[in-house]
Design brief:
Length: 690
């Protein structure tokens, strides 16, 4: 009763937001149970990890769930204590009663005995492999806790039938538990195969495709794979991203079982994924339709043909081009390894994660992503290996990957890797940019915000930082899209900003923000910041305030004053590098160009827009052979307003040189694709360019 009252009180005080606290890190147990010595709760010391020890525990109360799944347990001496299991699946996936049940017996390896936040004593389990649930027939269960005499135990068939009943009710965790019991006590190969075949389905529904594949492959008859076995193997391979192998199994299925109708639509789906994987051609409109669902998980394959992972001197690994690419070209379209949607309109998706060691907290999807990643690796050895290959600072990797038949997952290592490699992401970049640039284009300075939704992408995580960057990331649901932001030679390392550059930042400000990643940035923009004196930056800030008073839309702009202030601002930047980025200037130049266009001065509009682009590092040719021209000879830093800038050029050329509108539209499409990931919807956002 007290346990349930405490849970209710915390939920009511925090509203819908869950709170997780990450304690100081400690390593998981890497030794088998057989090598550990028994210890009683009465012999444990507070705030201690009892290395080399183990204790058997029996559950005395029904479980409850807050941020952990909890129940009162007792050891063999009858000493009772609260047991807390962290990083368990969501209640909607695996109910607490399926994680711990009244009477269940566990062995806790190297127990962590500590004081809870309310002052009570508890056994806290942060590593999934540190606690082992014992089957009813396990001879390691203390005799006084034995559940049933052998002659009263049910048969494998009886338990499998109960599992089938749970499947009918879509109680997948219950079905998984029952099928596992049926496997453990199966007396014939056929009974085990049938239980594994059924558990394969339960694993799929629980989001464990690697275990579903293992079960499907271990339930074949001597005469050959069964119809259900082939289909479930194919489905598991699909969810794991092995589309070629999935297609092979589906084709074997249709060849061996001619009456099967379920495989045909799956074959079409697999072939669509293979086309995406091999060619990089996607239906982005279909992606957007799928992104309307909650959570916005996209059914698409990863395309990565133009890039590969290589060593990057002084940076660890990086992502490099393997072919020459042009600005706007698709480099990578990657399905998330882990993704936790969170949004203001969905309070149930928000959570607070507090890290005791770093004394930092984050709000959003990070806590749920951490649990998701830990669960994913616990049930998929390949996922564990791939994740451990990401940069993880100085945190060591466990010396073994499996003990006692269970994966060894260091939850604190997972958290460390996540903190370095995960991205905040909008639901779609198109909607996010549209909101940031709402209103008349060119009139508003916009900055990229922080996003509550969090994801981790294995390949994209290899891209190293530059404030300027040569590629740009965008999102549609859990798909991250990387396009070249300029023309790149083969063998070029891809770089993008881990944070959006802000106006009027000092060099020290930027390096402080980047310090959590453990490096200092020496990109061209940071070099310019470093060379900017405090006096010059202060003067620039003062001029920016003056500018805001004379640049205020079509009716409130003093054009001569704006021109004068812009010339003064130009002088606050280090001399000698004409193409250097002047981050505070593009916005007012674009805004001034829009004003001049509205005043019927298209030629002056073109000059201002082009000058704004030049302050971002662009090189634009506007005359050739004495005639007007429009050619981007070098792409620069891409801002959210760049499509608007090309739209203003399009409108200006409509009046002065209509033949150049084609070029303006082409460049607007390239800029739009770099920003939002695709060009299919350009006409939707900019009807003038349709």
């Amino acid at each position: 009763m007290k346990l349930r009252m405490a849970s209710s009180k915390q939920k009511s005080s925090l509203g819908a937001m869950a709170m997780s606290q990450l304690p100081p890190p400690y390593a998981p147990c890497v030794r088998p149970i057989s090598e550990l010595e028994k210890i009683a709760i009465s012999d444990m010391k507070l705030e201690t990890h009892h290395r080399g020890k183990r204790t058997a525990l029996r559950v005395l109360t029904p479980p409850d769930r807050m941020t952990a799944v909890m129940a009162i347990v007792e050891d063999e001496q009858g000493t009772a204590l609260l047991l807390q299991l962290y990083y368990q699946p969501d209640e909607s996936v695996v109910p607490a009663e399926e994680i711990m049940q009244l009477g269940d017996v566990f062995i806790l390896k190297e127990p962590f005995f500590k004081t809870a936040t309310d002052g009570s004593y508890t056994l806290r389990v942060d590593h999934l492999g540190d606690i082992v649930r014992l089957a009813n027939s396990d001879d390691r269960i203390p005799s006084q806790w034995s559940k049933q005499p052998p002659n009263l135990r049910q048969s494998s068939i009886d338990i499998r039938v109960q599992g089938n009943e749970a499947v009918q009710k879509k109680k997948w965790a219950e079905a998984h538990r029952l099928y596992t019991s049926a496997i453990q006590i199966a007396e014939t190969p056929e009974d085990e195969q049938l239980a594994r075949l059924n558990r394969s389905l339960a694993n799929m529904r629980l989001g464990r495709p690697a275990e579903a594949l293992s079960d499907a492959r271990r339930c074949d008859n001597p005469s050959g794979p069964s119809e259900k076995g082939l289909f479930r193997e194919a489905r598991a391979l699909y969810e794991l991203g092995y589309f070629d192998q999935s297609l092979e199994r589906l084709e074997s299925l249709t060849a061996s079982y001619l009456e099967n109708t379920a495989a045909k639509p799956e074959i079409q789906r697999v072939k669509a994924r293979l086309r995406e994987q091999h060619t990089g051609f996607y239906s982005f409109r279909k992606m957007y339709r799928q992104a309307r669902e909650m959570p916005p998980l996209i059914d698409c394959a990863t395309f990565s043909a133009p890039v590969e992972v290589r060593a990057s001197p002084g940076r660890g690994n990086g992502l490099f081009t393997v072919i020459p690419v042009s600005a706007g070209q698709l480099l990578l379209c990657e399905k998330a390894f882990g993704y936790a949607f969170a949004g203001e309109g969905h309070p149930e998706t928000m959570s607070l994660l507090l890290n005791v060691a770093t004394k930092k907290g984050v709000i959003g999807g990070q806590a749920r992503l951490l649990t998701q990643l830990i669960q994913k690796m616990y049930h998929d050895p390949w996922a564990q290996k791939s994740y451990h290959e990401l940069h993880h600072g100085g945190h060591g990797v466990p010396s073994v990957s499996e003990v006692d038949g269970h994966s060894v997952i260091d939850s604190f290592l997972v958290a460390q890797i996540q903190s370095i490699n995960a991205f905040g992401a909008p639901k779609t970049s198109r909607d996010s940019i549209s909101q940031r640039t709402a209103g008349e284009g060119g009139q508003k300075t916009v900055q990229e915000g922080k996003f509550a939704t969090t994801g981790l992408w294995l390949l994209t995580s290899r891209i190293n930082h530059s404030c300027v960057g040569n590629c740009r990331r965008s999102f549609i649901g859990d798909m991250q899209i990387i396009r070249a932001a300029r023309d790149l030679e083969a063998g070029t390392e891809l770089l993008f900003g881990y944070r959006a550059p802000q106006h009027l930042e000092s060099y020290a400000d930027v390096q402080r923000d980047l310090s959590s990643w453990g490096f200092r940035c020496n990109c061209e923009l940071c070099i310019s910041r470093k060379e900017t004196t405090e006096e010059a930056l202060a003067h620039r800030k003062a001029l920016t305030k003056q500018l805001s008073k004379v640049l205020n839309g079509h009716q409130g702009t003093n054009v001569p004053a704006v021109r004068r202030i812009l010339l003064q601002m130009e002088k606050t930047y280090p001399p000698g590098v004409p193409e250097a980025i002047r981050l505070e200037l593009w916005d007012p130049y674009f805004a001034l160009g829009a004003v001049l266009l509205s005043e019927g001065k298209p030629a002056e509009c073109i000059r201002m827009i082009v000058r704004g682009m030049e302050t971002l590092g662009f090189a634009i040719t506007t005359t050739a052979g004495g005639k007007m021209a429009l050619e981007v000879t070098r792409w620069g830093y891409m801002t959210d307003m760049m499509p608007w800038a090309f739209l203003h050029l399009f409108r200006a050329y409509e009046r002065l040189a209509p033949e150049l509108c084609v070029a303006a539209k082409k460049y607007a499409g390239i800029a739009y694709s770099i920003l939002v990931g695709e060009e299919e919807t350009l006409g939707d956002e900019f009807p003038q360019l349709a």
